[in-house]
Amino acid sequence: MAWSSEKMNLPSHTADTGHTRLNELGYKQELKRDLSMLSNFAFSFSIISVLTGITTLYNTGLNFGGPVSLVYGWLIAGAFTMFVGLSMAEICSSYPTSGGLYYWSAKLAGPNWAPFASWITGWFNIVGQWAVTTSIDFSLAQMIQVIILLSTGGKNGGGYEASKYVVIGLHGGILLLHALINSLSISVLSFFGQLAAAWNLVGVMVLMILIPSVTTERASAKFVFTHFNTDNGDGIGNKAYIFVLGLLMSQYTLTGYDASAHMTEETKNADKNGPKGIISSIGISIIFGWGYLLGITFAVTNIPYLLSEDNDAGGYAIAEIFYMAFKNRYGSGVGGIVCLGVVAVAIFFCGMSSVTSNSRMAYAFSRDGAMPFSSLWHKVNKQEVPINAVWFSAFISFCMALTYLGSEVAFQAMVSIATIGLYIAYALPIFLRVTLARKSFVPGPFNLGSYGILIGWISVLWVATISVLFSLPVAYPITSETLNYTPVAVCGLLVLTGSSWILSARHWFEGPITNINS
C-alpha cells in the first residue's frame, strides 16, 4: 500500500540524494537522471519566458491601466508568485517525484483524503498544463502571422493577413515540431533547455536596451512611472478595477515553474536542486521581466494608436512599437521584424519546454492509473523518454486550440484555465500543507522553518484572490461576446473532475501507487 510511513533515511554521499529519496517514496528510477541544477532551472525559466508572456499580453496591460499597471502590477504579482514558489519548493524538497503537485496533495492530505486530493489536484494540473501549451503555441502562430503581415507591407500597405484556418495550421505545425524534439533523449533536451534559457536572458537584455535606444520618440520617466490609462473603451472607469484587470498579464507570464518539480526524477540531487530550480526561475524572471517592461514602455508615446486595429501590425502593440521604432529612424521596419523574430524563437523554446513538462506529468499521472488507457501513456522508450505521453500531450493541446475556429470567446475560456486552473493546482497542496499536514509534514533539505505556515497561508490567499479577480467581467455592458467565461471554464473543469470522482474514480483510484517492488 502507498501509505506506509517512511523514515527520512540519510543517504550516503555516494548515492544521489534524489534517487535515494525516490526509492524511499516507493518509486523505482525509470527515467534517466541526467539534469544538473542549471538544466532544471532552464526548463522552468524558459516556460515562464518573460519574452513570451509580456509580448503576448502587453496589450492587456496597456489597455487596463497602461504604464502604472504594467510597471507596478509586475512587482506585485512577482512578489506574491515568489511566496507561492517558496511554498512549492519546500514541499518539492520533501517529495521530489515527477508527479509533483498531485503526489504532494496525496501525501499531505493523509490516508483518508489522499485519493480525492490527488485526483482533483492532478486533473487541474494536467488540464492547466495542456491549456498553457495551447496558448503558448497559439501565441507563436499569431506572432508568425504578424511577422508575415509586416514583412509583406503591413496592414496599411496591403500586407497578407492570414485567416484563422492558416493560424490553426501554423499552430498544428509548431506542436508537431515540439513533439518531435521531445521524442529525443533527455540529454539532447537538456541542451535545448539551456539554449532556451540563454536565448531568453540575452534576448531580454538586447531588446530592453535596443528598442528605447532606436526609437525616435521616447516617453518621459514621469509617463512610465505615473501615467494611468483609464481610456479602455470597455466601459470600466474604476481605477482599482482597471489595475486588477491589468494584473492578468503579469500573473499569466509567471506560471509554469512547476516544471522544476515535474523534472525532479531526471534531476541530480533533486531534493535540493528541484527547489532551487523553482525559486531561481521565478526570481530571475521577475528581475529580467521588469527590465524588459521598462525598456518597452519607454518607447510608448501614443497608447490609443498602439492598440488600434488600424495600425500596421493590426493592433499588436509590441509588434507596432518594434516596427515603428526602426521605420521612423531608418525608413524601414526590417530591424523591428528581426526583433520580433527574436521573441518568436523564445516563444518556440517556451512551447517546447511546456510539452516536456506536460509529458512528465502525464507519465506520472498514468503511472498511478489516473488517466484513461494509463498503461499506454506511461510507457518509456529505449532512450528513457515517455514517448506516448509526449505525443498525447501535443495532440490534446491541438484539440484545445480548435475551439478558436468556433469562437474566440470559447478559446479565451480554454486559455483562462492556463492561469487559474494551474494556480488552483499550485494552491491545493500548499493548503493541505498548512492545514491537515501542519503537524505531520517532514521537511526535506530545503525548508522555510517556522515561516513555512505563514508563507503558505499568504500563497493560498493570493491564489484565492486572483481566482476571483480574473473571473470578473472585462467589459461592460455584459453580452455573450464580452462575458468573461473564465469562471464557466474553471467550474466546468471542477464539475467534470468532481462528478467523475463520485461516479467512478472513488471506487478504484487509490492515489499514488508505489512500483518499487513490481
TrEMBL record:
UniProt cross-references to PROSITE patterns, sorted A to Z: AMINO_ACID_PERMEASE_1
Keyword Transport attributed: yes
Domain of life of the organism encoding this protein: Eukaryota
A single GO cellular-component term on record: membrane
InterPro entries in the record: AA/rel_permease1, AA_permease, Amino_acid_permease_CS
Transmembrane regions: 38-58, 70-89, 101-124, 130-150, 162-181, 187-211, 278-300, 330-351, 385-405, 411-432, 453-476, 482-503
Pfam families: AA_permease_2
Membrane topology category: Multi-pass membrane protein
Gene3D superfamilies named in the record: Amino acid/polyamine transporter I
Subcellular location(s) per record: Membrane
Assigned keywords, A-Z: Amino-acid transport, Membrane, Transmembrane, Transmembrane helix, Transport
GO molecular function: gamma-aminobutyric acid transmembrane transporter activity; L-alanine transmembrane transporter activity; L-glutamate transmembrane transporter activity; L-lysine transmembrane transporter activity
Family per record: Belongs to the amino acid-polyamine-organocation (APC) superfamily. Amino acid/choline transporter (ACT) (TC 2.A.3.4) family.
The name this protein goes by in its record: Amino acid permease
The species this protein was found in: Dipteronia sinensis
